[in-house]
Amino acid sequence: MKKVFLSLVILISTGSLWSQEVKTGIQYGIAFSSMEELRVLDLQIKATIPFSTKIVADFPGYWYYKPMIKLAYKKFSVGIEYTFNSTGSRISGKDYSGEYLLDMRIRRNSPGIFAEYYLHSFKNFGIWISSSGGILFTSLTLKQDLSVINTSLTNNSFSFKAKNYFFQPGAKLVYPWHSFDFEFNAGYLIELGSGALHEEKDSRQLLVNMVSDEPIKPGWNGFILGFTINYTLKKSK
Amino acid sequence: MNKIKLVLPLALPGIKTGIFSLFTALLFLPSCEYDTDQVYNRTVDKNTTAPVIGMVELHLEGDTVYVYGSTDFNFSFTSSDQEIIGAGFSVDGADSLFVQSDNGQFRYRTAYLTPGQHTLKLDLYTHSGSSSIADILNYESYQFSKTWVLILVNDYYTYYEENVSNGYLKLIFPKYRNPDLTEYVISRFIIDSFREVGRVTIPEFTDSTYVGEGGSYRVQVNTSSGDRISWGEANLNSDLPQVRYYNIPGSGNFVTWDRSKFFNAASGYYAEITNMNNNLGAIPTKLNSSADTILSLTGFQNGEVGLIKLRVVPKKGNLVYTVGYYPSFERYQYFTVTN
After folding, report:
1. What is the 3-state secondary structure (H, E, C) of B165-221?
2. Do the chains contact at A95 and B133, CB–CB below 8 Å?
3. How many whole angstroms separate alpha carbon B176 and alpha carbon A200?
4. Which residues, numbered 181 to 210 in chain A, qualify as contacts with chain B under a Cβ-Cβ cut-off of 8 Å?
5. Could you tell me if A54 lies within 8 Å of chain B, comparing CB atoms?
6. A150 reaches B (C-beta below 8 A)
7. How far apart are CA B269 and CA B314, in angstroms?
């Protein structure tokens, strides 16, 4: 994957010599990730807590951002991208005597390559389909904090990571304006691979389901809705 | 003054404006990393009142408690409302031993205590009932304390002597001093095992069926907490009447015996007299009163040897007699007739 990525960087830098246009852009939007296995883990942990708690945040859709650079032809473009996305959950219980918190924060850093193909246009809008793929580097921080009568009884923090791959088919609506392209993007991210979350410093220590003992994978699968601003660095002559 | 000019490395048309625009857009992006400040405020009730504590098995009114041997010391409490968490025990001011219980029953082991007098302090903890985190994790509670004088008795197990009262066997044993006494249970060894013969609430037992045949008795104490304490035993030797022969010139030959010490438990006597010289067989005789203690001998010549078997017959209810095992009720005596 690294080789492919490097090849594309070289291709884009040299391709600018003969391609139609070179564009750079930033996309941001909301990713709705399923996080199925982590949601189940939250429920299992909640069930073991002797007092009433509530899952006040359950891996909601959250902002992602994605800088990119691409070679654009009339009906086709390819490029490289990098995505950062995060979400999380919280189990909470608080009263006058103390507070319990279990926070999960999960992040993904995913470099990738993408290709887009022009389909149709009406008025000033162009309709394109796209697909991208790359590596999913996931990091998860799990913090548990219990304090009773101003005394900390538990204050633990665990860090996990995982490596997987992704494939993301999608479509976009493009509105060009001067040197800018404004895009509305929609896609579905599919997590590939069997990389389970393991302790950051010891890959043998896996995060597992409390009932089945099965290793837990990140679960980034889900819909992605975004908005992109592209700027044309080099226009066709 | 030197001027520093920021030169972007890309020599492409309009690039400065474009990149500036993109980075400006980035500044307005939402926070990149997810976070939340939501919390769930639990519903609790801070204004609870202390429960009323009740004692089920051991009565708290007494300030002195006796502990017999290594018998466990049982406490059982009830709470009118909030659940009981546990109890801390300390003896003579030593470190407290905490025993957790969800039903208010506690067993304090006294095996390590030395015999004699001690001070026992009990601290009982109940939940506060607020349902707060501290309450549920046992960091918030109501506390009730009570102190007793604790007297540990190790040598309570005793061996009882035979005691006769009004013609009955009477076993007298030391008193069990705690108010959780339910009863004393008296058992008697019959054939091959102990069988219960009575239950009393005072430390004495009268066996209205024992006639001196000998036997083993065992006493146990039952407490309201369900404990059964071995309290003592009595091993009685046979104590049947002694038989004697005598001759009254001109009146004849007789055998006689002392009245049974347990005369009120005896319904009478059964005797068999055998002339050992003619070997004609025994002559059975039944005496229906324990006051009859003399039997006339007939058919004996001077110098002949006789054998009398005297059996003390108990009133109904003697378990040993009921099963038909008579030898322990019988005494044999040879005699020689002298006219």
Report:
1. ECCEEEEECCCCCCCCEEEEEEEEEECCEEEEEEEECCCEEEECCCCCCCEEEEEEE
2. yes
3. 67
4. none
5. yes
6. no
7. 9
Q: Parallel, antiparallel, or unpaired for β B228-236 and B158-159?
A: parallel
The answer on pLDDT for A37 being more than 60 is yes
Q: Facing residues of B73 across strands?
A: B108
Q: How far is CA A162 from CA A138, A150, B12, in A?
A: 5, 36, 40
Stretch (H or E) spanning A38: helix A36-48
pLDDT per residue over B193-205, tens digit each? 999 999 999 999 9
**How far apart, in whole angstroms, are the C-alpha atoms of residue B177 and residue B156?**
11
**pLDDT at residue B107, as a whole number:** 76
Q: Which residue of B has its CA nearest to A234?
A: B12
Length of chain A: 237
Please tell me which of the candidates B21, B25, B140 has its beta carbon nearest to residue A97.
B140
Taking the Cβ of residue B83 and every Cβ of chain A, the question of whether any pair is shorter than 8 Å is answered with no
Residues of B in contact with A90 (CB under 8 A): 36, 38
Distance from CA of B88 to the nearest CA of A (A): 22
Rg (CA), chain A: 21
Furthest C-alpha separation in chain B: 168
pTM over 0.80: no
Distance CA A157, CA A141 (A): 7
- Taking the Cβ of residue A27 and every Cβ of chain B, the question of whether any pair is shorter than 8 Å is answered with no
Give one DSSP letter per residue of A174-189, joined into a string. EEEETTEEEEEEEEEE
CA angle A164, A167, A169 (to 5 degrees): 160
> Parallel, antiparallel, or unpaired: how do β-strands B204-207 and B168-172 relate?
antiparallel
The secondary element (H helix, E strand) that includes residue B26 is helix B15-27
Given an 8 Å threshold on Cβ–Cβ distance, is A235 in contact with B44?
no
User: Is residue B211 pLDDT above 50, yes or no?
Assistant: yes
pLDDT band at B80 (very low <50, low <70, confident <90, very high): confident
The alpha carbon of residue A236 and the mean position of all alpha carbons in its chain are separated, in whole angstroms, by: 33
> Could you tell me the domains of chain B?
53-153 (2.60.40.10), 158-236 (2.60.40.10), 243-336 (2.60.40.10)
